[in-house]
Design goal:
single chain, 275 residues, alpha/beta, TIM Barrel, 16% strand, globular
Length: 275
């Protein structure tokens, strides 16, 4: 059994064949998907939960759970109405996490850092009140680690004491950042980019992550793994990630599948109960 811990099922790129995409995931051994609820901004962050409800109980598709959050690139729109909507959505029966939230200084046109920091902290407070783990997005400017340093510092100040943990999604930092996250109860999740030829530094980090802190994901429709690079990614392709992690860690894909599934179930205990 495989779990795709981060998939953007609400992407318009799936509008024509979403059911077929989910059926292919089941055929590839994917049992559960966490559908990420950021939409195209706060106005559509409810779509992931709607999709989870729409496909609940259907045969031949994975179980779908959802998150809800305001992506750092959309934090200009994190007004009180958007935050209230997020808080309301945390009570949706399929919502098990808040995210993806965090910091991003990769693109020059992203919101100012003070805006991102404020929205990040506000969303952590909503997650604290809802008693839900958080999904962290962090993307640093090329050649720097400032976004990672700031993200971990904010988590240590505003989140560590909750004991709720979360996921450092599509991890792209250095080992020190992974270690600080693990110390706070976060899982470190690797996506299809860990399979890329130039991703050896990422594989080196993956080799050091404790087995009980590891997750896998697609981040689809982005970052399709080798051998599908350049195509639209989809949950079925998560099956390629365990092989790369197994090679890096001198183990087997089957052991990666077991440990990442167990880690997900431990982090999100609601997944173990019928919807």
């Amino acid at each position: 059994m495989l779990i795709d811990s981060h998939a953007h099922l609400d992407s318009t790129r799936y509008d024509d064949d979403r059911l077929a995409v989910l059926q292919r995931a089941t055929a590839a051994g994917v049992d559960t998907i966490l559908s990420i609820g950021i939409g195209e901004g706060p106005d559509t962050m409810h779509r992931a939960a709607e999709i989870a409800s729409e496909f609940a109980g259907l045969p031949d598709v994975p179980r779908i759970f959802a998150s809800v959050g305001i992506h750092p690139s959309e934090t200009t729109f994190a007004d009180q109405a958007a935050l209230d909507k997020l808080a309301d959505l945390t009570r949706h029966p399929h919502v098990i996490a808040v995210g993806e939230i965090g910091l991003d200084d990769y693109h020059a046109d992203n919101p100012p850092q003070d805006v991102q920091h404020r929205a990040f902290i506000q969303q952590m407070e909503i997650a604290r009140a809802a008693k839900l783990p958080i999904l962290i997005h962090c993307r640093a400017k090329e050649g720097t680690t400032t976004a990672w340093d700031d993200t971990l510092s904010l988590l240590e100040t505003h989140w560590r004491d909750t004991g709720l943990g979360g996921v450092l999604h599509c991890f792209g930092g250095e080992w020190q950042h992974a270690q600080r996250g693990i110390d706070m109860g976060f899982c470190i999740s690797f996506a299809g980019n860990v399979t890329f030829p130039k991703a050896q530094p990422l594989r080196d980090v993956a080799a050091r992550v404790p087995a009980d802190s590891l997750l896998i994901e697609t981040d689809c429709p982005f970052l399709a793994p080798i051998p599908h690079r350049g195509k639209r990614n989809e949950p079925a392709f998560v099956a390629h990630v365990p092989q790369t992690l197994a090679d890096a860690r001198n183990t087997t894909p089957e052991e990666i599948a077991v440990s990442t599934t167990n880690n997900f179930l431990r982090l999100f205990p609601a997944v173990q109960h019928p919807l």
